[in-house]
Write a structure and sequence with these properties.
The chain is mostly helical. It has one domain. It is about 80% helix and about 0% strand. The chain contains four helices and no strands. The protein has helices spanning about 5-45, 50-85, 100-105, 110-135. Helix 1 (about 5-45) packs antiparallel against helix 2, helix 1 packs parallel to helix 4 (about 110-135) and helix 2 packs antiparallel against helix 4 (about 110-135). It starts with a helix and ends in a 5-residue tail after the last helix.
Length: about 140
C-alpha cells in the first residue's frame, strides 16, 4: 500500500468514526430532550392542552430522531463498505477491519446500533400514549 493509499484509508476510517460519534451525540441530545419532556408529563398536573402539545411535539421529535439515526447509519455503512473494499495485497498480514468472520461475529445479535434503532420507536409509542391520554383530560 502506497503512502497515498494509507492516507486515503486513514481518512475514510476517520470519516466512519466521526459518523459513529456524531450518531451517538445526536442520540444523547434527543434522549435528554425526550426525558425532559417526559419529566414534565409525570411531575405536573398537566391539563389537556399541555399534554396534547407535548404528545404531538414528542412524536415529532421521535420521528426526526429515527430519521436522523437511519441516515447516520447509511453513512456509517457507506464508509465501512469503502474501507472493506480496500485490499492489502502487498501486506497479507494486515487485517481488514470491516469485513470477515470476526466482523460478522461481533455484529451478530444485539448491538448498540440495535439500541439506537429501538429507542426512537419506544419514545414514539410513549408520545402516542401521552397524546391519547390527553383526551381523557377533556372530561
Amino acid at each position: 500500500m502506497t503512502n497515498d493509499e494509507k492516507a486515503m484509508y486513514t481518512g475514510m476510517a476517520m470519516s466512519r468514526n466521526t459518523e459513529v460519534t456524531l450518531r451517538w451525540s445526536r442520540s444523547q441530545m434527543f434522549m435528554i430532550i425526550n426525558s425532559a419532556m417526559l419529566s414534565i408529563v409525570f411531575t405536573r398536573d398537566a391539563g389537556f392542552g399541555l399534554l396534547l402539545l407535548l404528545g404531538i411535539f414528542g412524536l415529532g421529535m421521535a420521528t426526526v430522531w429515527f430519521m436522523i439515526n437511519e441516515k447516520s447509519q447509511q453513512w456509517v455503512e457507506y464508509w465501512q463498505a469503502r474501507l472493506a473494499q480496500i485490499r492489502h495485497e502487498e501486506e497479507p498480514t494486515t487485517v481488514n477491519v470491516f469485513i470477515g468472520p470476526e466482523w460478522d461475529i461481533i455484529n451478530k445479535g444485539w448491538t448498540f446500533h440495535t439500541l439506537l434503532k429501538i429507542l426512537p420507536k419506544a419514545f414514539a409509542v410513549v408520545w402516542i400514549g401521552v397524546f391519547l391520554f390527553s383526551f381523557t383530560r377533556l372530561f
